[in-house]
Amino acid sequence: MHINQISVFLENRTGGLAEITRLLAENNVNLRALSIAESADYGVLRIIADDSKKASSVLLSSGNILSMTPVMAVAVPDKPAGLNELLEVLAEGDISIEYMYSYNTREDGTAYMIFRISDEKKFLEVLAKHGMKPVCPSDLNIK
Amino acid sequence: MSNYYQPEIETASHEQIRKWQDERLVKQVKNVWDNVPYYRKKMEEKGVTPDDIKSVDDLYKLPFLTKDDLREAYPYGLMARPLKDCVRIQSTSGTTGRRVVAFYTQHDIDLWDECCARAIVAAGGTNEDVCHVCYGYGLFTGGPGLNGGSHKVGCLTLPMSSGNTDRQLQFMTDLGSTILCCTPSYAAYLAESIIERGLRDKIKLKAGIFGAEAWSENMRRDIEEKLGIKAYDIYGLTEISGPGVSFECSEQTGMHINEDHFIAEIINPETGEVLPEGEKGELVFTSITKEAFPLLRYRTRDICVLTRKPCSCGRTHVKMSKPMGRSDDMLIIKGVNVFPSQIETVLLERGYPANYQIIVDRVNNSDTLEVQVEMTAENFSDSLSKINEMEKNLVSALKSMLGIYAKVKLVAPKTIARSEGKAVRIIDNRKI
Questions:
Q1: What residues of chain B, 302 to 341, have a C-beta less than 8 Å from chain A?
Q2: How far apart are CA B184 and CA B243, in angstroms?
Q3: Spatial CA neighbour of A132 closest among A79, A88, A80, A74
Q4: Residue B2 domain-assigned (yes or no)
Q5: Which residues have a Cβ under 8 Å from the Cβ of B36 and sit 6 or more positions away?
Q6: Cβ B382–A44 below 8 Å, yes or no?
Q7: Residue at B84 is within a domain
């Protein structure tokens, strides 16, 4: 149920991000989702790749600092208020979200949100109560 | 036209100064031999006894003391008096984090204050003056030293301490400060603030006594012009007493060392050999009147030149140049002594690699310190707030070690150059 997110330390300088994407491009890794959290001098790049093992070994071998973080993806209806309904449920269930971002898909009618939650057990309970659950990596065609 | 605080001492003949030094040195060496086992052991190792020291000519026979000795003997190992005779400590940072603590008897404080009084009077100070002291007060010697000197002279003393520019300027204008004592960079900062706020006509400053950090002739002219004052340099170090070990007179061509209290030598920092007058080398001090904490042949690591050329001010005491550099890697940032090894200690304790870089700069006349550290896999996290928190912890650990704020910049691994041999850890961009 977990999806492997690769978190990469990114120094804030021109061309820093391009170095990473170039590396992935050269190794034929496809990026499925990406988010950056930044402060003045550095940032954390968070990516979901179609092949997380390959992506991480490529990045590591070129000297990057990274960590693998288990995250969860939840499907939301791709329509107005789709995300809001889910977030209302989480708010009501007193679930605190560390961070989240959206996941690209070409499927019609469904969007996905990637969640990093500290209390995953409670998260799953709240979802289950509303008949929802995170999707598997295979559902998203990633490994 | 010159002013003296103690004319009979400050203009004494060379023979007289030499006589004082010979007598006091012999007495001090005996005192240290009897009361400081740490130094006695050093003398014994060198095969020297007090009988070998009959005058200043024999000074070279004595072993040196270094900051490492102060660390090893910390805190009481170099004291020559019992604690009950002491009334004060002052402190400065040491090489690997252990602080240097110097002890004072009341007599030591009185003599130190007199040294500072000489500096204030040389800058034109009298009991009519309002002496505005914005050196830091506390463990740092700057504030207490000039404060004591100002009392001796009889100036109205404003114990402002450092920072809070609004308050500094308010007191300066409301109470008509005439003598400003602070670091040169703070003086430059105050000068700019005064001009920006259109207060130039409201201040009554006539002189400034600026020390504890390096400053250039250009900076002096700039401060003098902006504030309409004459700016005097002052030198000192906690180990020897504090500010007032030497001070500038109206000639502004070097600082007179108070030779009735401190014997100065210049040595070759590599060999320890004493160099003749006029040659550039490391400054070494022997305190001949200190009671509580008498250091013999203490290596300051400051590189300078001594001259006995007659001075137009009439003072006869030897003059030292501004320090031209250091024979170790100590940095003086905002008047505070900073050793790269202190920074390294903090980094290693917290699991950061020893590969770091220190960048010192001067922005708006104020020193800045940045420590660049490489991110490690262990310290990395997917959560930005965790990294931020770690960074904050590192900043506060550095602050408590160094006493000043250091900006921490986390950089990607392997981005700090690994040099062959001795690493170039320090980039000092200050143009002074």
A1: none
A2: 14
A3: A74
A4: no
A5: B77, B78, B79, B80, B294
A6: yes
A7: yes
Question: pLDDT (tens digit, 9 = 90+) per residue, B1-33?
Answer: 459 999 999 999 999 999 999 999 999 999 999
B383 with A64: Cβ contact below 8 A: no
Residues B220 and B92 occupy one common structural domain: yes
Total domain count, chain B: 2
**Structural domain span for residue B201:** 7-328
Fold of A3-69: VC0802-like (3.30.2130)
* SS3 category, B113: helix
A vs B: CB pairs below 8 A: 54
DSSP B265-277: EEE-TTT-PBPPT
Q: What is the dihedral of CA B78, B84, B85, B88, to 10 degrees?
A: 70
Residue range A103-141, pLDDT digits in tens: 877 777 888 999 999 899 999 999 999 999 999 888 888
Cis check: omega of the bond before B75, within 30 degrees of 0: yes
> How many angstroms separate the CA of residue A109 from the nearest CA in chain B?
30
Q: Which residues numbered 24-63 in A keep a CB inside 8 Å of some CB on B?
A: 37-39, 41-44, 46, 63
With an 8 Å Cβ cutoff, are B414 and A63 in contact? yes
What's the CATH class of domain A70-137? alpha beta
